[in-house]
Amino acid sequence: MYSIGFFEIPSRYLPILVTVVLVVWVISFQGRMLHLGALDLYDEFYTLDRTTGFARHDDWLNVYRNNEVSFRKPPLQYWFGAFLLEQGYDWTFGLRAPSMAFALGCLIATAFLAAIVLPANPWVIPVAVLFLTVSRRFWISASQALLDTGVLFFLTVSLVAAMLALRRPVWWYLMALAVGLGALQKAPVALIFVTLFLLFTGLTARWHPYKFRSFVTNRHFLISVALALAISASWYVFQIAQHGLVVLKVGFGEQMFDRFVPTADVQKTRNLSQVIDHLLGNEEMLRWCAVIALALLPWRLKRYDLLPLPMMLVAYLLAVGFADGGVSPRYTLYFASIFAVSIAAVLLTLPIKPRTLSAFIVMLALAMGGPVRSPMDLRLFPRDLRLRQIEMLERISAEQDPSEQLVYCNWDPATRIPPGAVSVYGTANRPYFQPEGHDGFRDLVENGEITGPMRGLCPTDQLQDVEPYVNGFQVVETLSHGSRHYTYWTADSVRTVEE
Q: Quick one: how many helices (H) and strands (E) in the chain?
């Protein structure tokens, strides 16, 4: 028994109480910051564009990007944010609150995962939650209008359900629901993770009792697989019925398959150092501890049914190494719950006295950054450059004529303005042209897509790729911020320049 004031708490409940206090503290601390600042990160403006698109276009059955129907992302989190905006919340809070809500779900799901991995020691629950909270990348995703905490939530719930279902098949239905909703939130990441987990579970069955036959022939498993696939595919089937097979080309081909398809060009493969940098993601101390703990986990706990967890990380890193497309370091957040649980479980099996171990865990967590972060550390306040960009976009939107075509040069990562910001602030809800590369504007002219008159915004050094192909070019205003220079211009018509 432990006494707190007039209350006595059974020792078996104390870890749960500590977990609840920790979760309530960190969520309330970080959640109060959601009203601060304004959107700034590049991908936050994609969320702004897609979330506000439902109301701007009076259409809740399509996701809009650049003021056109888009098949890149499904709608679940955007609907969540749009509902909050409809209730009167401002853009900053309404778009960021869903990420924080999913972060709360991640902390709870991580607690359940920890309890499954090391059921003999309930202190693994608060320790695992603690090590998830020390991740700066986790809190950035939780505090910004991003989709990653939603992915982590559905993935972790799916994994928890699958591990439980190996013992009690009724849990397959929770797995199906989490997998399906996860696919409607961003991408079928939970489906991929659970598939890898079950595949590696079957392949390592010689060291544990969960053979392929124990679940693939189970009626509940087969029904849940059908249910998971049906929910996952529902949005895409609905979109195909409206817009045709281009949905598969963009939604699955460009957004998923093209990113991870192995490259045929050896020069494009990432070397070991690049893969390690991708994995560490500016959280070197946390991630190195996590990787070591994950590698030791099955052997330290003598739980060989946990072998699939490190195997899943190896499979991911191999995919990253040979991937032909761009793979964001943000994707490593999807292992955050597994990492946190691995660290906690391995630490709690060390032969160290409880008080010494408790002190060591607290000191290690503080050395990794601690369980909460400041607004400045999470980049909640927009940079001056972003504010100046938005001011110029709003001016263009106010001054444009409906007969004018809109052009934004935006191909250089060093100077590009977030397309979502362009769409919301600079277009008056109209589609616009975004040339691809130095020859992009010329190609649009020669293909007859741009005829004029036009109004545009380009980094000043990219005007050389525009001005030779237009008549009546006129500079309206220039914007300079440090080394970045932009020009707001108009033109009467286009002309073809012979090569």
A: 21, 10
Where does 296-437 show beta strands of DSSP type E? Answer: 405-408
Number of neighbouring beta carbons within 10 Å of residue 222: 13
DSSP structural state of residue 324: S
Residues 393, 327: Cα–Cα separation, whole Å: 30
* Rounded distance between C-alpha atoms, residue 124 and residue 118, angstroms: 7
- Reported as a pLDDT band with limits 50, 70 and 90, residue 10 is low
Length of the chain: 499
Q: Please name which of 49, 36, 46 lies closest in space to residue 143, comparing C-alpha atoms.
A: 36
Nearest to 391 by CA among 31, 38, 51, 13: 38
The per-residue pLDDT for range 177-201, each reduced to its tens digit, is: 999 999 999 999 999 999 999 999 9
Cα end-to-end span (Å), the chain = 86
d(CA 301, CA 384): 51
pLDDT of amino acid 132: 98
Q: Across 56-162, where does the E strand assignment appear?
A: 63-65, 68-70
**DSSP calls for 231-299:** HHHHHHHHHHHHH-THHHIIIIIIIIIHHHSBPS-GGGS--HHHHHHHHHTT-HHHHHHHHHHHHHHHH
* Residue from 431, 498, 437, 432 nearest 469 by CA: 498
pLDDT at residue 17 is higher than 50: yes
The closest of 343, 345, 351, 340 to 292, measured between CA atoms, is 343
| Exposed e or buried b per residue across 254-277, where buried means at least 16 C-beta atoms within 10 angstroms of its C-beta | ebeeebbeeeeeeeebbeeeebee
pLDDT surpassing 80 at residue 286:
yes
Which residues are within 8 A (CB) of 142 and not within 5 positions of it... i.e. 6 or more apart?
A: 30, 99, 100, 102, 103, 106, 149
Model confidence band, residue 6 (pLDDT cutoffs 50, 70, 90): very low
pLDDT in tens, 417-474: 999 999 999 998 888 999 988 899 999 999 999 998 999 999 999 999 999 999 999 9
